[in-house]
Design a protein that fits this description.
2 copies of one chain form a homodimer. Chain A is mainly alpha-helical. In chain A, about 65% of the residues lie in helices and about 5% in strands. The first copy, chain A, is elongated, with a radius of gyration of 23 Å. Chain A binds a DNA duplex (30 and 30 nucleotides) through α2.
Chain lengths: ~130, ~130
DNA sequence: CTTGACCCTCCTGTCACTGGAACCTTTATA
DNA sequence: TATAAAGGTTCCAGTGACAGGAGGGTCAAG
């Protein structure tokens, strides 16, 4: 399979697939014309990567997870640790965003949003006291 | 005030303050020795920026908000639009993260996390069916 | 034989900083 | 007074995970 077909097949942009080869996540073969030739295992890895990225794992996490995936002698505890750590990060981010959201939604509600200059949002940002 | 003092005063790293000057968010004066000299208005702006950034506004949003802040003839609707748009972005991100969180927490719970290789997390990433 | 759809590499840009090198100025201490 | 520490300066490179684009080669169809 050529890269375009792989792209439609995996849902990953061509650029991304090339990038993943660049950072050694996949190692497709090459045809005589220089075109990448993807085997089933390459495509399988790409789908794996797509799903892992969709869950928000970093590229380095993905590298680790792929290695564990391919290692038949892995301990599931190793996988679980990576996932649990990531879950903690996600929760932290959500908490962060919720804090912003709460403050901001109060401010937005308090703002008249008309043609007058008076604005509680700016008042808050300016240090309202 | 010199940059170090401003940094402790505003809570912004020195590097960040210099960066904000670089992209023309602030325009401190210069002493004869080349040191930046910050006026009260500069410090006020920096605090404004710190609070806006803490609410997750992009630098470009901050630029817009600062301009509105300084424009006595602004319409609060303009401020509100920026804030509401940002709120939408935040909500989208939260929804995204919650999706990841839900999937991931199920997987983590399902994983034994022992020394055996069997792992539902990897099974899912590998396309379990 | 040409056209258009692919494919290639290489370089740059994104966002909001952060780190570091190499250097100058001020302040405190011996 | 010499010097060392602490502060300031500029400029360049790197971060993460790609995306955009230039400039070119290759392939299948009409």
């Amino acid at each position: 399979m050529n890269i375009g077909e792989v792209s439609t097949h995996t849902g990953l942009p061509v650029k991304t697939i090339r990038y993943y080869e660049d950072i050694d996540l996949i190692k497709p073969l090459r045809d005589d014309n220089g075109y990448r030739r993807f085997r089933d295992q390459d495509i399988h890895k790409l789908k794996f990567l797509g799903r892992a990225r969709a869950l928000g794992f970093t590229i380095e996490d993905c590298r680790t997870l792929l290695a564990l995936y391919e290692d038949e002698t892995r301990a599931s505890s190793d996988v679980k640790r990576v996932a649990r750590d990531h879950l903690v990060q996600i929760d932290a981010k959500i908490a962060d965003l919720r804090g912003m959201r709460d403050t901001l939604s109060h401010l937005v509600e308090a703002c008249a949003g008309d043609d007058r200059p008076d604005c509680p949002i700016l008042k808050d940002l300016g240090g309202k006291p």
